[in-house]
Each structure stands twice: as structure tokens, then as C-alpha cells.
Write a structure and sequence with these properties.
Helix content is 39%, strand content 22%. It is of the alpha/beta class. It has one domain: Leucine Aminopeptidase, subunit E, domain 1 (3-Layer(aba) Sandwich), CATH 3.40.220. It has an eight-stranded mixed β-sheet with strand order 4-5-3-6-7-2-1-8, sandwiched between helices. Helix 3 packs parallel to helix 4 and helix 4 packs across helix 5. It is globular. The C terminus is likely disordered. It binds adenosine-5-diphosphoribose (APR). Adenosine-5-diphosphoribose binds next to strand 3 and helix 1.
């Protein structure tokens, strides 16, 4: 399934874009595009809970009992349960209401807060899905530029434990949008099969 790969290096970290299923990734953490209830649902959220098993939901329930619903743009970390990834970082992207309700800032925050958790926990590698571009309706052309720009800016800021960031895009249209965004932002990139 992971046919195509686009990769660049930023400040000792590799940024890769692949088409595939995030539940199969063996990075230290995978990011879940959750909702504020953290109770699981459809899309990538449903797939992660199905594959990872009940231990993930159990920890999500404990987090919500402790600190309430997770606000949009924030992130928390749980076990990866039965996943190959040891951790799941749950974040909540914004619902798209046309773009002038703070959606770009909230989407950037979802990526930044997820990366901050990975860095704070000395993780080496992390995979992201395309947050907010499914059920939440964020236009993928805009979301892809913002996602890649935000991650590159974070990686450029400082050298951290994180040396590998992978965008795992489920469908070819989303994969193409992220590839174009990366090429646009970086200017030049190394394409590999
Ligand atoms: N691996 C990678 N990406 C996936 C997978 C998967 N296994 N399954 C779905 N996707 C992709 C979708 O195709 C889409 O491109 O993830 C992207 C995000 O879509 P959604 O999962 O709908 O996430 P989002 O738009 O952020 O909406 C979040 O949906 O499932 C609910 O609980 C979730 O209410 C929340 C809302």
C-alpha cells in the first residue's frame, strides 16, 4: 500500500510523506485525529481504537475523568495498546467553519502540541494523519500546507529527540496534496520509490 514516498531532511530530522494506514506504523508514537470526548468514533480514530484495543480507551477515560474533555488544539498521550507504536498521541483538530473561526491557528496548535508531547517524552519518531480533513471538513489543500509548514517550523526551531516525522495519508488525493505542499514549501526535495 505504501507505494510512494517523498522525503526531506530538516535539522537532523527526516520528514516523510507516505500513502498508507497509520495503524500499521512502527514509529514510537502515532497521532490520532480524535474529538474532545476521547471516546473514539469513525475515521482514523475508529481505526486506531479498533486495532489498538481497549487499553487505549481505558486510558482515555482516565484522562477525561482527571481533566475533562480535551480542548481543540491540545494533545494527550496514551499507550499504543496492541499497535506497533508504543504510544498514541490524541489531538483534536478544528471543525472547518469557513476559515475565519480560528481554524488555521487551532490546526497548527494540534500539530505543535503533538510534537511537543513527543519531544517532552524523548520520542524518536512520530506519525501524523491528515488531521481535520475527513469528518471535520478542513480543505485538504489548505490543511496540507499548514500541517507541513508547522512541522517544518517546529523541526527548524531546535534539535530535539524527534528525528523522524511521517505523514501517513490514507488516500491518493490526500497524499498528492501533501506532496505538492512539501515541494512548494521546500522548493527542492528528494523523491524515492
Ligand atoms: N490511516 C491514516 N489515515 C486515515 C485512516 C488510517 N487508518 N483512516 C482514515 N484516515 C484519514 C481520512 O481519510 C482523512 O484523510 O484521516 C484523515 C482525517 O479524517 P478523520 O478520521 O475523519 O478525522 P477528522 O477530519 O480530524 O475528524 C475527526 O472524526 O472519527 C471522528 O472522532 C473523530 O469526531 C472526530 C472526527
Amino acid at each position: 500500500m505504501e507505494k510512494q514516498v517523498v522525503e526531506v531532511t530538516i535539522n537532523q530530522a527526516k520528514l516523510r510523506i507516505i500513502q498508507g494506514d497509520i495503524t500499521k506504523q512502527d514509529t514510537d508514537a502515532i497521532v490520532n485525529a480524535a474529538n474532545s470526548s476521547l471516546m473514539g468514533s469513525g475515521g482514523v480514530d475508529g481505526a486506531i481504537h479498533r486495532t489498538g484495543g481497549p487499553a487505549i480507551l481505558e486510558e482515555c477515560k482516565q484522562i477525561v475523568a482527571r481533566q475533562g474533555h480535551l480542548p481543540t488544539g491540545k494533545a494527550v498521550m496514551t499507550t499504543g495498546g496492541n499497535l506497533k507504536a508504543r504510544h498514541v498521541i490524541h489531538t483534536v483538530g478544528p471543525i472547518w467553519y469557513g476559515g475565519d473561526k480560528g481554524e488555521p491557528e487551532l490546526l497548527a496548535s494540534a500539530y505543535q502540541e503533538s510534537l511537543k508531547l513527543a519531544m517532552g517524552n524523548q520520542l524518536f519518531s512520530i506519525s501524523f494523519p491528515s488531521i481535520s480533513t475527513g469528518a471535520y471538513g478542513y480543505p485538504v489543500a489548505k490543511a496540507s500546507r499548514l500541517a507541513i509548514g508547522t512541522v517544518i517550523a517546529s523541526l527548524r526551531q531546535s534539535v530535539t529527540s524527534v528525528r523522524e516525522v511521517v505523514f501517513v495519508l490514507f488516500d491518493s488525493q490526500t497524499f498528492r496534496a501533501y506532496s505538492s505542499a512539501l515541494k512548494e514549501i521546500i522548493g527542492t526535495s528528494n523523491e524515492k520509490d
